[in-house]
Amino acid sequence: MNMRDYLQTAVDYIEENITEPLNLETIGNHIGFSKYYLNSMFSLYTGMSLIEYTRKRKLVYGINQLKRGMRIIDIAFDLGYSCERSFSRAIKNSFGESPSYYRDNNVPLSRKLNVYDLKLTLDEEKICSYQVPGHEKVEALIRAKGVFAMKSYLSDVRYEKIDRMKVISTTAFGNEPEEEVITRLKKLAQEYHLNVNREFGFDVPVEGSPDMTEFRGYEYWLAVDEKELDKLEGDAFTYGGGEICVKDIPGYRYATLTIEEPFVDPFERIPGGFRALVSWLETHDFAEEDCKRLEKAHCLEEVLEGEKTVMNIYIPVDCL
After folding, report:
1. Cα separation of 80 and 76, whole Å?
2. Long-range contacts formed by 9-13: CB under 8 A, 24+ apart
3. Banded model confidence at residue 183, pLDDT cuts 50, 70, 90
4. 27 plus 76 within the same structural domain
């Protein structure tokens, strides 16, 4: 299967198990991807997180059941809500009206996503005219503004092998989680006199209550030689207000490119870099029918400081 086949399998699995408890771990295990890799790919192709998509599909299912005469309280319990009020609030927050409004009015709701119809492209003409057959016009998968200018701060795509590595990891959730985790691990490295080989970070999907999902998550790694781990208190401990743990990361072959001055416009340049990289992979590794299942993989970011700040971004494509 190619990448879109895998993502479509995830979408189909959600539909077939819509009343079951669904989380990233469960869906990822079904198709053979790590939850981090799956969420990254799904977000890049669709513009929404897999958890957000799953939650909205459950709500659409609930509204359809309501139109068939089911009681709100029964639907709420079927979909895992603790009470009728929380289910009603979720519909109001997601779609703008109460459940009774959708029960009593013939309002079209979002349909099941067809990933086969989605394809990332850097062709501005295709972006502006792209239409999903039989459905409303899809918003540009890549914003037309600056598509060609984007290339001026992106390098060519290349491959890089990163061997198996031991990493010291920490994660934070909040409005600015990156600063928290980077500061924590840099202080730890200084205090424990660690010799750090490389540093990587990546977004972490946030699951849980609606209040929690308003935050962002970020995980940060210090890659070190195994002997450096003897300087630590153990493989898991608390430091600087967060949990520290040691992880063993398999080796992968990555497709990678470099973003110049990524923090000049981070919400444009960094996502733009990942979209450009996936667009390139669409005609290379992701187009292959034997696109690899990567069960422990992550899409990584590596910031390097020098005369210019650059960020290398990595998407795993094969195991070593």
Report:
1. 6
2. 10/38, 10/42, 10/50, 11/53, 11/112, 11/113, 11/114, 11/115
3. very high
4. yes
In a domain, 170, yes or no: yes
Q: How many CA atoms lie within 13 A of 215 on its CB side?
A: 17
Whether the full predicted model's pTM is greater than 0.85, yes or no, is no
Regarding whether 128 and 170 lie in a shared domain, the answer is no
> Which residues, at least 6 apart from 76, have a Cβ–Cβ distance to it below 8 Å?
62, 82, 83, 84, 86, 87, 88
Do 169 and 140 share a structural domain? Answer: no
Selected residue with higher pLDDT from 103 and 193: 193
CATH no. for residue 178? 3.30.70
Distances in whole angstroms, Cα of residue 264 to Cα of each of 153, 156, 195, 310: 11, 20, 30, 11
Domain that holds residue 138: 117-144
Q: Smallest Cα–Cα separation from 203: which of 190, 216, 222?
A: 216
Residue 207 shares a structural domain with residue 133: no
The angle at the Cα of 37, spanning 7 to 154, to the nearest 5 degrees, equals: 100
204, exposed or middle or buried, with CB in 10 Å at 0-12, 13-18, 19+?
A: buried
271's CB contacts (< 8 A; 6+ apart) are none
Question: d(Cα 207, Cα 132) in Å, to the nearest integer?
Answer: 29
Residues 124 and 210 in one domain: no
The number of folded domains in the chain is 3
| pLDDT over 80 (residue 126) | no
Q: Dump pLDDT digits (tens) for 74-89.
A: 999 988 888 889 889 9
- What's the rounded Cα separation, in Å, for the pair 81 and 306? 51
In a domain, 152, yes or no: no
Whether 214 maps to a domain, the answer reads: yes
**315, part of any domain:** no
H or E element: which one contains 54? helix 50-67
Q: Do residues 244 and 189 make contact, with C-beta atoms less than 8 angstroms apart?
A: no
The CATH number given to whatever domain includes residue 65 is: 1.10.10.60
- pLDDT score of 210 more than 60: no
